[in-house]
Amino acid sequence: MSQVAETGTAVVSPTRSGPRLARLRDFALLPVIAVLFVVGALVDRAFATTDNVLNVLQSQTELGLLVLAETLVLIAGRFDLSLEATIGLGPALGVLVPAWLHLSAGWSIPICLLVGVLVGVVNGLLIVKFRLSAFVLTLGMLVAGHGLVIAFTKGASIFKLPASFTYAGSAVWGRVPVSVWICAVLFAAGIVALGFLRHGRALYAIGGNVDAARAAGIRTDRVLIVGYVIAGLLAALAGLLYSGHYGSVTASQGNQMIFQVFAAAVIGGVSLDGGKGTIFGALCGLIVLGLIQNILTFAGVPAEWFQAINGVIIILALVLSRLVSGKAQD
Amino acid sequence: MTEPVASAVAVTKRYGNTAALTDVTLAVRAGESHALVGRNGAGKSTLVSVLTGLQAPDGGEVRFGGGPAPPLGDRAAWRRLVACVYQKSTIIPTLSVAENLYLNRQTDRGLISWRRLRTDARVVLGEWGLAVDPARPAGDLNVEQRQMLEIARALSHGARFIILDEPTAQLDGAAIQRLFRRLHGLREQGVTFLYISHHLDEIYEVCQAVTVLRDGRRVVTAPVGELPRPRLVEAMTGEAQGLTGTAAGRPAVREDAPVALKLQGLRLPGTYEAVHLTVRAGEVVGLAGGGASGALEVGETIVGLRTAREGTVEVAGRSVKAGSVPEAIAAGVGFVPHDRHASGFVPTLSVAENATLSIADRLGRFGWVGPGRRRALAERYIRDLDITTDGPQQPVSGLSGGNQQKVVMARALSGEPRVLVLLNPTAGVDVRSKESLLGIVDAAAAAGAAVLVVSDELDDLRGCDRVAVMFRGRMAGEYRRGWPDHGLVAAMEGVSGEPGR
């Protein structure tokens, strides 16, 4: 209650936590990550090696880009489930369209990314201008996207990928895979944009109170549409890295990833109600999930148990972050 | 005579076939606080949206300082001239105070410097007398601080003409007095206000001039000194009448009437202490006190929304299980929550469904809700409580504030309660609805219910047989019918040493 004394005659209010504490919340998961490292090192000596850490990072890059994309949309108070379809549809069309139209393989990456942009535009326009439910619309887009990949590939995987895909997914610059570099740069850009740019802050304002944002002169419709487009673009990029990494575009690419995406974001402190959370927090959530899975692999958990355990991990990580942050989730 | 700061000249606004404003002229002079009053639906909100450039008038024009208003699309220009602080806050709780102040103008270009933003914010907040840490999340601020933040934001845009829409609706007595002092200070710094309120007392306290709207037309504009309260009410309602003490017609409660509600030694540390109170059947008792008095919390304890650490609540001689709303209802308690928007009704559901929400179990067996019985009950309430609605099936969101509150009242009465607990029952409703709501209270008491009215509004308390006053969590005195206004107000503010029994 020291605040009361300071403000003197001014308006006073009871306050439970100081302003600094709120900022610490961003770093709430860092101790958890540290603990996981120690646990991992105790489970297996190979865990705490550079190779393994890079391996964990690379295996999380595709998921990471989706988390980045979803975080943008969630902070603005909306949903995008279709990301998990774009991660397959983008690379599939990136490979197939040049073959259909007899274009050079150099078109693959632009087409892949363009697919992401188009999905984002459709989502954005229908949700913002036509006022459809974001949840159900993007759910429809998800089902349709998966279906299109199956239709185009006739259910078979594509193994003949252009060299540009393979390079992006597997090249290494100075021991660190290119995909990790890309992911790191984009996350850094996201942290700066949402922390220090007016347009980034507009996402928070919209997610916090869309009417107030509009009253302050923010072009809320435009910001939201651009948000969806960037999210789609990031998902297509994730698809490109994913295909390059595993050397194929599978018909079921991305299946069920969206659950992990939401899990990482919420564990990292991003609110499903909008206006709350940071990119850095979501990144921490992502790393926590990745580390736990890696530790389980080292611990020799049989593969057929993975999915069940994955679900339990998400719930445990959620409980953990609730305990660490001390704040109710919504 | 100098040009008015802001004026509406012969403004007309139609929505389809209905005229919201007809030929309304309003001139607000620099440095004055001008009251805008009228019953719900009189056209106040439409006039505000025309004055703030959110809607174009169909006829007439808006002028600022003698010049024409900027084009509708130029929001920035409007923001430099006028701002409205609405009842619904436009503060974003998840963002910091500083960021709210500089929303969408955190930086001209490039990266935001949070340090500079906070420094600038501290200066602006200091200038207008709001000493809060700019780095705090705005969600930590109380209603009063958020309101001041909105005013400071408007002023920092350059506007010196500010419209306040029901600024005291969510404030307690002490906070209202602080707000008035601030408004006075701002007025001396050259800020002009258009002040919208249902509380006529406030208008006489704060404003110099008043304009009354009725049915979309201006009825009168006059200095407040020339328009005494009865004439003001008459101008608003179109007929000569005022809030009369309803209790006058009710016979005094007999001393041997059974005790319906008995509070014994209720204690919730930090909120209230040693609360004792009895209400007899057929008696209307007021529990008066502002925001920090604990009165509201005592009310919420009776109905099971809160749990007292010590003490008991007895209804008709039997103690009620603490902290359970279903138990309280089962024991015969009906209640009106203090904020109807937050917990009074479900806006998307119909009048019928809302009115019968707490007695759904009596409408049919095995969870089956009988639509016929529900409809019949709802129609009875619509008739008895005089609810203006298209019918029982209309969603409550489509009703006016006063009628919404009547639906909440209907729900409270639906269980035919022995004890009726009303928390701020007339907050934010117009004069006529207020009267009719208080009439309903009276009728319930006459029918034998024990009524506890928890409020800090004199109009609510005037009909009470007795008023118990709370201050800082303790009982501060009890007043019998015929109490002097100033004595009661002084007790609520903790000024008087002696309760005037």
Automatic annotation (TrEMBL), chain B:
A Pfam family hit: ABC_tran
Entry GO MF terms: ATP binding; ATP hydrolysis activity
Domain of life: Bacteria
Sequence ranges assigned to domain ABC transporter in this UniProt record: 6-240, 253-497
Keywords in alphabetical order: ATP-binding, Nucleotide-binding, Repeat, Transport
CDD domains in the record: ABC_Carb_Monos_I (cd03216), ABC_Carb_Monos_II (cd03215)
Matches recorded under SMART domains: AAA
Gene3D superfamilies cross-referenced by the UniProt entry: P-loop containing nucleotide triphosphate hydrolases (3.40.50.300)
PANTHER family in the record: CARBOHYDRATE TRANSPORT ATP-BINDING PROTEIN MG119-RELATED, GALACTOFURANOSE TRANSPORTER ATP-BINDING PROTEIN YTFR
Name of the protein this chain belongs to: ABC transporter ATP-binding protein
Lineage: Bacteria, Bacillati, Actinomycetota, Actinomycetes, Micromonosporales
